[in-house]
Amino acid sequence: MTVQTRQRAAWDAWRVDWALLGIVLALLAIGLTMMWSVTFLPKVGKFPDPQSDFVRHSLFALAGLALLIVLARLDYRWWGRLAVPLMALTLIALVALLFTTPINGAQRWLLGGSVQPSEFAKFTVIVYMAKWLSSKGDRLRQVTYGLLPFSLIVGTICGLIMLQPNLSTALIIALCVMGMFFIAGVDLKQLALLMAFGGATAAVVIYNTDYQRNRLLAFLQQDPIQLMEGTGRHVREVVIALGSGGLVGQGLGTGIQKFDYVPSPHTDSIFALLGEELGLAGTWLVLALYLALVYRGFRIAAKTSDPFGQILAAGLTFWLIFQAFVNIAVVTATIPFTGVPLPFISFGGSSLLAALAAIGVLLNISRDGNTTKEADATFDFGWRDGGARLSRVDRRRRSAEAGIRRARAPR
Description:
Strand content: under 5%
Oligomer: single chain
Shape: globular
Distance between the termini: 44 Å
Number of domains: 2
Radius of gyration: 23 Å
Number of helices: 15
């Protein structure tokens, strides 16, 4: 190995999307800070180890960062080869959940409540669909090759997750894969039909599930803030927490809503506690970081020369940002209440590990997916001709290959 080769290898090892990594580390730091503030003081004098939640969250963060580093060095194309086995394992895990003992009325956990397969199902489904969509090419616009098998695959996964019941996770997965379907170049009429059918299915499920119907009715009340029981009370308390912070907040650790006012303040409602203690400035900082994550994720997708890498990067970005904004929309009473963790900030080992794994794959795509000089292309959303919305790179490469074949053909 020559000196230049070793130098190039050393440079490649450090070639990473530092902006994306910095955004994620900033969100993790905010999450750890809020976890200490929200969990420590309320447990002092009530539990023998008041810092147990913070320590556990920190350990999951360290494990997630280690996983991120490994996946950032692992060629993302391997995920395409593992797509089918991963999907099979996911289906087995989701079916196994149906035979477990319910915890708090839901069958969402394996191994004694320590692993939530639906969190990892988000990653698996995105990998599988990226491989499946990128293999179809122009045939994706045919109903028998695109819409029908797509509906069957997504419907099976989302149906198993809704049986837990876990409608919010099923909806996030459905939104992610429909975004990927759009990026891959599906006919817009098919996408509209799919969205209409999915919306109707969700409405039927909500209407026939008591607690979900009650949440919707609480949201539709003329003045939900006046509700004092059940879901209405939860909405009321998180809105009070969020609004009481003012511009700069009451100060880190000085909020009062975490003292038995907001249920589970360290999980789904942590954004409201952040608003109480860090104010509007703190919430805007978090929103800015998520928007920056969206920009970096789609920039990575647009600069990638491989169709599989493009759709995979877009799907992972859709997942993280949809989940973040569903959580924030719930806390601000913009949509009906549902339990969704805030990526990189909320307490939850499965969610944190899955989110950091997604970032690891994105970092690898940003380094290894940009393999040609033509990789600076952008998404062609195909509004005028209804064509594929993959980067122009793939089509230009096919045109170049066709030109070479014509030039080599005997005359």
